[in-house]
Design goal:
This protein is α/β, with parallel strands linked by helices and 339 residues long. The protein has 8 helices and 16 strands. The strands form 4 sheets. It has a 4-stranded mixed β-sheet with strand order 1-2-4-3, covered by helices on one side.
């Protein structure tokens, strides 16, 4: 059994999700201790418990300690089986992070899977659905695994109520990927989603984007949502290049001005542009696991985050690979994954 210290590195929920995914992939039981030890509310929250329940459901595995607030979990996987699954978080917890736990294991199933998850679709500190659709899944398709995520209903923090449906075809062997250059810029634009809030919030966000990014009105879009999508706001900045698309998101919050939301997203986008790296820090985080499962890969990124290094350390506990990160130049780091 592999023992994982959930307090290592950043000490957050990614350690749990990666450990469960790799336990399912390698069929090795795992015990995770000190779960989310560095968070204000340590232990399993609804979102994390749903991820555990999803891992159990797709493999008929066993989990000890699977309850709210638990700080230790022992998981013994069974054989992953495809099918139709539905998971309800019950809060605004991130649908995409629950999906992250079971997406790659379901590639090993003998038949296709359809996974419906309800909860939050646009959450701070989690990849929004737009990011998966535009930035991550096209790269996964290039690795041989076409995965389709459909956004049925937006769900913003703190209300939740969103829904995504994911269709996963079997793909037991992933191909490596090299992504060292982003290529020429083909398109850039911003979208401000607004639900049951004054439209001027979205308009002010886009005005700020236009000023900071030096973009024209034709690149700025208000996306009004109907009332059944709850209450919320999210701003996406999309940069489409020849080899990769990047998405940077700002999330509306009570007490935070529209201008501040926009500036936060623009700062991330501008840092990425200045770095000349192929991928930004969030996409680097997402690419790490599939490339490790493929056994080979390479990409350039800006400086690695603590989230990245923590995730890499967990992955190396399960897989016979080495993840090397070296500074390439003043703004880029080269990440190499080898057996």
């Amino acid at each position: 059994m592999i023992i994982i210290d959930g307090s290592q590195g950043e000490g957050e929920g990614q350690i749990l999700r990666t450990s469960l995914a790799l336990s399912l992939w390698t069929q090795q039981p795992v015990r995770i201790e000190h779960i989310r030890a560095k968070r204000a509310k340590p232990g399993l929250l609804r979102q994390h418990l749903t991820a555990v329940q999803a891992a159990v459901a797709i493999s008929k595995g066993q989990a000890k300690g699977a309850e709210l607030g638990s700080r230790a979990l022992t998981f013994s996987p069974g054989k992953v089986q495809g099918g139709d699954f539905r998971f309800a978080i019950g809060t605004a917890g991130s649908c995409t992070l629950v999906l992250q736990t079971i997406l790659f294991p379901l590639l090993l199933a003998e038949r296709a899977s359809t996974v419906t998850i309800t909860g939050g679709t646009h959450n701070p500190s989690a990849p929004p659905v737009d990011f998966l659709q535009r930035a991550f899944l096209p790269l996964l398709a290039r690795m041989g695994a076409p995965v389709e995520v459909t956004l049925k209903k937006h769900g913003f923090f703190p209300g939740g109520g969103g829904e995504i449906v994911t269709r996963i075809q079997p793909c037991p062997i992933l191909q490596g990927l090299e992504l060292c250059e982003r290529g020429e810029r083909r398109r850039s634009f911003a979208e401000a989603y607004i639900a049951s809030l004054p439209v001027h919030i979205a308009e002010r966000e886009l005005k700020t984007v236009g000023e900071l990014m030096n973009w024209r009105k034709e690149q700025l879009f208000v996306r009004g949502l109907s009332g059944h999508n709850g209450i919320g706001n999210a701003l996406g900045i999309i940069l489409e290049h020849e080899h990769v698309t990047e998405v940077f998101t700002g999330f509306g919050e009570r007490g935070v001005s529209a201008e501040t939301v926009a500036k936060t997203a623009c700062d991330e986008a501008l840092d990425y542009i200045a770095s000349n790296a192929a991928v930004g820090p969030h996409l680097a985080d997402q690419l790490l696991l599939p490339l490790a499962l493929a056994g080979s890969g390479r990409f350039t990124m800006s400086a690695p985050t603590q989230h990245f290094t923590t995730n890499a350390a967990v992955i190396e506990r399960f897989l016979p690979i080495r993840i090397g990160v070296e500074k390439k130049d003043l703004t880029r780091y080269d990440t190499l994954i080898v057996l």
